[in-house]
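## retry 2 of 3
previous attempt timed out at serialization; input unchanged, resubmitting
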Amino acid sequence: MNHSTRLVRLIEIAIMTGAAVILDIVSGMFLRMPQGGSVSIMMIPIFLISFRWGVKAGLTTGFLTGIVQIAIGNLFLQHPVQLFLDYIAAFAVLGFSGLFASGVRESALNKKRGALTMYVIGGVFIGSVLRYAAHVVSGAVFFGSYAPKGTPVWIYSSVYNATYMIPSFILSAIVLILLFMTAPRLLEAKRTN
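## retry succeeded, writing output
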């Protein structure tokens, strides 16, 4: 990859990191869960970068999104390990959706709507499940005291985090499918020779 292609990729990563943080802040204004988390479309910019440039760019964008959220204080802090799990790891793992990048790009550019839908859902699902897993572990370990008496902490954490992660997964998948069906050129990463 030459210098100008790397520069384009870095600029896009920076822009999508900013977009993800802004979308999370705006979403949090309307529905913020008591111990953190919200139904949000903030994952869309991270998934978009992952589908355009692949896993490495997606991991970088997610990682930077977590760092920026920490820097601006948009967080719910209990412990340094919880901070890592809920912000650094949870957003970075969204980049693994890039494993589906070639399938998403190829099916969008060839107007194969069924294949596009399946690849996008697969990629968004993988990223969302990994993020959900990070939040569930964090919730069970660091927020277990919030579980109602008699409720196992792992069940409480699983249900609590599912209440916002499932809608966020569905919203992200729908928006990305519609976006790529109407504007497949968004997936054409500018790779200069």
